[in-house]
Amino acid sequence: MKQAKTIFQQGNHSWTIIARDPSKFGYIIDTNEYLITSGNDTLLTDPGGSEIFPAVFSAICTVIDPLGIKALFASHQDPDIISSLGLWLDFNPKLRCYTSRLWTGFIPHFGGDDKTLIGIPDEGMTLSLGELSVEVVPAHYLHSSGNMQLYDPVAKILFSGDVGAALMPDDQNEMYVSNFDRHIEFARGFHQRWMGSAEAKLDWCERVAALDIDMMCPQHGAIYQGADVMRFINWFAELPIGLQTFKKK
């Protein structure tokens, strides 16, 4: 079963990561889910694929009543992000799912209908969760043509989706980056192939560098803390990606 670990707590405001399932099948990519709670309301980010729904649901039950989850957030359209949507709606048909407006006609193939999906405009928006306001940060063309991230200015946490993701080997299961230079090699190939636009990359780096971030939490791999957040942004800004590398192969 996946583990649930609180990574931020301030009164009734918290972030919890759901990660690291030792019984996960080796042929699927490992994922991180995050619970953002304010008061009695909780939002679940990128709830994952249908095949891991039981593991995610069981881990959540160890920390909160899943009926406290008011909304889902899908950073983009991939199956490891949101193919569990139908199962979540079987559990609670009232759930709503925030995602880029680009995917509101595609994600319902996983479940739900035109009332389930709430389209986020290209420029982003502010989500209200309990007493908290969370900013939706656009990251279009970084892995997906319609891509969104979440920034919590109180916790100073950026949920960065696939930006910052690392494909870690099975014997590397640390929750936080402990050695940046070693860890970033697990992120290099993923960013070079799955991030297609150098222009979008530099635009994202400039905007995110201006935010006050204590933790950058990706959907795959370990969490960047403190100075490692800016180390990642600077590394990413300099990294050749997409066609910059593909044409040379």
Automatic annotation (TrEMBL):
CDD domains in alphabetical order: flavodiiron_proteins_MBL-fold (cd07709)
Highest taxon of the lineage: Bacteria
Protein name: FprA family A-type flavoprotein
Domain Metallo-beta-lactamase residue range list: 30-220
Pfam families documented for this protein: ODP
Alphabetical list of InterPro entries matching this protein: Metallo-B-lactamas, ODP_dom, RibonucZ/Hydroxyglut_hydro
Record lineage: Bacteria, Pseudomonadati, Pseudomonadota, Betaproteobacteria, Neisseriales
